[in-house]
């Protein structure tokens, strides 16, 4: 609420109003978009920091709307969460990422590769989430170790008990788990003890100012040390320059992801990428 003076409170500023309108409009269209086939996935490569070997892709959701053009997830994921649409949307992403993986494996392109998929709070909070994941893997004939699920701290903190249950079940099933945007939340270290995961992803905001900004170097070095101490691999996202890559390699970072290595690509382009960067 904005205070306009004595006793006068206006519920929304004009800017908020636009945002509310935008959300309402996006929300109404998003529901239909799922049915109309307007959603698709881009795939961004992840490579071994030391050898450059192709390790896998992160699946990133896209919405191509006839009226709105290409809408990026930063604009519509929060809207979908607000509408309670995220379990459905998230299941769509998981299903399509697994189907794509299956197709690439059948084409001899993806042996040993891992598909990373983002998971929203509303998904991990569901008691049947782990079962959903294993069902989806089975349906596509994939091994659990071929899937990595990326969680943000806030998605787990919304209901720790429920999240822990899902995480334990997924971990026991052999699915790989990663902490996304690591270091941007509030309770990063304490939750590392509770949630045993396989990987930490250094947020791109920390990678951005490498190698010149000393504080960013210290943070990257610290995250890598913490990860390795706890037997986790560390992934750097948002790697855009050779200087960033060189420093991350020198600090012992395990995996690189970012425009320097490859932009997010649609499925045909990602398939071409795999032909040029064989796995294994
Ligand atoms: P994220 O998980 O941190 O994903 C990485 C974002 O960084 C992606 O943006 C990617 O395109 C972008 N990126 C990759 N390399 C670089 C780089 O070198 N430089 C810069 N500046 N950016 C780079 P995108 O695709 O717009 O996704 C934004 C966020 O939306 C994601 O952030 C993720 O939190 C969320 N998201 C995307 N797809 C899904 C999904 O299927 N489910 C859920 N729950 N969230 C998703
Ligand atoms: Ca992610
Ligand atoms: Ca991230
Ligand atoms: Ca991020």
Automatic annotation (TrEMBL):
At the top level, the lineage of the source is Bacteria
Q: What residue stretches are annotated with the EAL domain?
A: 23-278
User: What name appears for this protein in its UniProt entry?
Assistant: EAL domain-containing protein
Residues of the whole record sequence present: 534 to 813 of 820
């Amino acid at each position: 609420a904005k205070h306009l003076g004595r006793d006068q409170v206006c519920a929304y500023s004009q800017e908020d109003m636009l945002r509310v309108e935008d959300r309402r409009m996006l929300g109404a269209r998003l529901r239909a978009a799922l049915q109309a086939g307007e959603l698709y996935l881009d795939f961004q490569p992840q490579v071994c920091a030391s050898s450059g070997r192709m390790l896998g892709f992160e699946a990133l959701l896209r919405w191509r709307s006839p009226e709105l053009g290409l809408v990026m997830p930063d604009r519509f994921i929060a809207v979908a969460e607000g509408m309670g649409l995220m379990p459905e949307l998230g299941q769509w992403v998981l299903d399509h990422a697994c189907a794509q993986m299956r197709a690439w494996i059948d084409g001899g392109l993806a042996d040993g590769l891992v598909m990373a998929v983002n998971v929203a709070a509303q998904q991990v909070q569901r008691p049947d989430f782990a079962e959903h994941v294993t069902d989806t893997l089975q349906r596509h004939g994939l091994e659990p170790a071929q899937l990595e699920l990326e969680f943000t701290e806030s998605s787990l903190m919304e209901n720790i008990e429920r999240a822990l249950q899902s995480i334990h079940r997924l971990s026991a099933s052999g699915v790989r788990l990663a902490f996304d945007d690591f270091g941007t939340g509030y309770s990063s270290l304490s939750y590392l003890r509770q949630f045993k995961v396989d990987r930490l992803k250094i947020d791109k905001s920390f990678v951005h100012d490498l190698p010149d900004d000393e504080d960013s170097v210290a943070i990257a070095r610290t995250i890598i040390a913490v990860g390795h101490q706890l037997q986790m691999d560390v992934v750097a996202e948002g790697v855009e320059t050779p200087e960033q890559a060189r420093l991350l390699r020198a600090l012992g970072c395990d995996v690189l992801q970012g425009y320097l290595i490859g932009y997010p690509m649609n499925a045909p382009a990602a398939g071409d990428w795999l032909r040029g960067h064989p796995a294994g």
